[in-house]
Amino acid sequence: MKIAILGAGESGVGAALLAQAKGLEVFVSDMGQIKEQYKAKLATAAIPFEEGKHTFERILDADQIVKSPGIPDKAPIIQEAIKKGVAVISEIEFAGRYTDAKFIGITGTNGKTTTTLLTYHLLKSAGLNVGLAGNIGESLAEKVIENKYEYYVLELSSFQLDNMYQFKAHVAVLLNITPDHLDRYEYSMDKYAASKLRVAQNMTGADFFVFNADDENIAKAFKSEAFAGTAVPFSLKGAEGVRVYFEDKHIKVTEKFYEGTVDTSKSGLIGKHNQYNTMAAVAVAKLLGVEDKQIEQALETFENAEHRLQQVGVAKEVTYINDSKATNVEAVWYALDGIKQPIIWIAGGVDKGNDYSTLVDLAREKVKVLICLGKDNEKLKQAFGRVIPIIAETTSMDYAVRLSRSLATPGDVVLLSPACASFDLFNNYEHRGQRFKEAVEKIVLKK
């Protein structure tokens, strides 16, 4: 059997290595330049590859094509494959065929990474034999070569789900659906929502679909009468029929055979959106038999991915939080809403057509200082000039943090939550967050 792999990143190279391990004839093709680390893996395995082009004749001679999630269906090579009747699948679909492990598939427009990492942490801390893969940045296919795990927790993007057909999750999680990547879905929310709901495809009554009952787009798209799995809705608003909900800092799980009450008071996660993420992760843990106390202990020790409402230091009773990943207004809303203390807010960068009006009431209530960190701060100053008492400007992260320290009083929070892209002053949001952490470390060392 011949397999063509399109895209030689983490997922493509993983799929190539698995295909070779299973005795298939493999060819890898990437329209761009392949990173040296992946080129070395292919060369070491003696897998033939090309970069900077797609040789149509060789690719279309394959029995199946495994494509990178980043390649749209409208790409000429994919259109030609469809015309010729060559099956096009995702790395996750391909890898799933070579393992009997149970999958926990997690998707949603926002919160996927946090929920995936938290779910993995809860299960691993409880002693389950569990692996982590998917959109989190680790190839499932490469892990399936050794096939040493009983469970895999997978972060799944809509692009990955689009080319998954026979794949079945034992537990599927859908966190939310908000407009994103609509250019890949003919600017149709219905088509985008249908893509997200593929996470729950092929389920039987022994499988569980954990979903946010408060999300209007999920409610509109999910057809429960045509669903064969067991629905486990969660809610903060007391939606009808919920199985998982919050009550006085405790998560209650009422699903038959899996009941539990989990104290979340020692969790370091901040904000309402993280309450949803935590409900989903706790629900998965309970459905896999983890005890309440084990979950509580793991919640206390969980450290979120970098740059997502990450506490990076405390000095003179002032807390410094790195939320550099918050590159849009919605993400900043969650940050401001979740923090209860007075805030010194560092924001700015490359504006993406932001409408700041949804943040004005929160800013008026909670923000005592706004430090604009960017080359052009006029839009921020216009939006908040009448509601935030002190507004300053700088193009230096070190100065922004030093100024925050001088204006802060005990009990305050200094929050980097930019609402903007980073490219005016930094390489990316990670670089921006790292510079913030370094600047905070200087202050913490002097406390």
From TrEMBL:
Matching entries from PROSITE patterns are given as: FOLYLPOLYGLU_SYNT_1 (PS01011)
What residues does the Mur ligase C-terminal domain cover? 307-420
Q: What is this protein called?
A: UDP-N-acetylmuramoylalanine--D-glutamate ligase
Q: Which UniProt keywords apply?
A: ATP-binding, Cell cycle, Cell division, Cell shape, Cell wall biogenesis/degradation, Cytoplasm, Ligase, Nucleotide-binding, Peptidoglycan synthesis
Q: Name one Pfam family in it.
A: Mur_ligase_C
Q: In which pathway does it act?
A: Cell wall biogenesis; peptidoglycan biosynthesis
What this protein is reported to do is described as:
Cell wall formation. Catalyzes the addition of glutamate to the nucleotide precursor UDP-N-acetylmuramoyl-L-alanine (UMA).
Q: Which reaction does it catalyse?
A: UDP-N-acetyl-alpha-D-muramoyl-L-alanine + D-glutamate + ATP = UDP-N-acetyl-alpha-D-muramoyl-L-alanyl-D-glutamate + ADP + phosphate + H(+)
Q: Which family does it belong to?
A: Belongs to the MurCDEF family.
